[in-house]
Design brief:
Keywords: Endoplasmic reticulum, Lipid biosynthesis, Lipid metabolism, Membrane, Methyltransferase, Phospholipid biosynthesis, Phospholipid metabolism, S-adenosyl-L-methionine, Transferase, Transmembrane, Transmembrane helix. The structure is a single chain. This protein is an all-alpha fold. Strands 1-2 form a two-stranded parallel ribbon. The two termini are 20 Å apart.
């Protein structure tokens, strides 16, 4: 089975191309931008961005240990089931990602909200399209497979029927990660000040894309195929 679908690649690469066309991040390809990956600000941001994907991998490869840990404090205080605990931890990790991004912009430019206000109208329009597309895919995947499906229920003891309806019937293999990446690219677009780009914002975005790709690859290597009945 293919790790990625053609539509996954087309939408993701198309979003990146549009971002380059609108944001024109020429400063992001400079020598100083590449050197920025060795700075504490960049490394801390990259660590914050990585958190949720490390969490995904830990639960994916060690579901029994995670379920056992969820049965007692402190994790048992976060929810009644491993899926609920996992969802809570992912929400925290996603928040940490945004703090990492905003912290990086603050350290290299100043007020990230000021950077956003100085973004061009075309940049804001692109961001709106990317975020709307991303959140539409995220909402669709939740509607299709629910919390149990999104948060590895089939590995954590919750039955999850295989789904081949929307948005999978469009040709997506990983709609949740395509949606997540598009949404994040929209946020990155509006804080892409020249100073942040020179400090390494583009390599940080590339690292984010790599993490989404790696997590997609991990999941595709052991999907819930055939473990439960399909649903439209």
């Amino acid at each position: 089975m293919a790790f990625f679908s053609v539509l996954d690649a087309v939408v993701s690469v198309g979003a990146i191309v549009c971002w380059f066309m609108v944001a024109s991040p020429t400063d992001g390809l400079s020598a100083s931008a590449l050197a920025g990956i060795a700075t504490p600000a960049w490394l801390l941001a990259a660590l914050a961005v990585s958190g949720s994907h490390v969490l995904y991998a830990c639960v994916w490869y060690m579901p029994e240990k995670f379920s056992t840990a969820c049965a007692s404090p402190p994790l048992s205080l976060l929810g009644k089931s491993p899926v609920t605990v996992f969802a809570f931890l992912v929400a925290l990790a996603k928040g940490l990602q945004q703090l990492g991004l905003l912290g990086f912009v603050a350290a290299t430019y100043g007020n990230p909200f000021s950077a956003a206000m100085q973004a061009s109208g075309s940049t804001w329009a692109l961001a709106a399209v990317l975020i709307c597309l991303g959140q539409t895919l995220n909402a669709a995947i939740y509607a299709a497979i629910g919390k149990d499906g999104v948060y590895y229920g089939f590995k954590l003891g919750a039955p999850v029927p295989w789904c081949d309806g929307f948005p999978f019937n469009l040709g997506f293999r990983h709609p949740q990660y395509v949606g997540g990446f598009c949404s994040q690219l929209g946020v990155v677009a509006v804080v892409s000040s020249p100073a942040a780009l020179k400090a390494g914002l583009l390599p940080l975005g590339a690292w984010w894309f790599f993490l989404y790709s790696a997590t997609s690859l991990m999941e595709a290597s052991g999907d819930n195929d055939g473990k439960s009945s399909k649903t439209a």
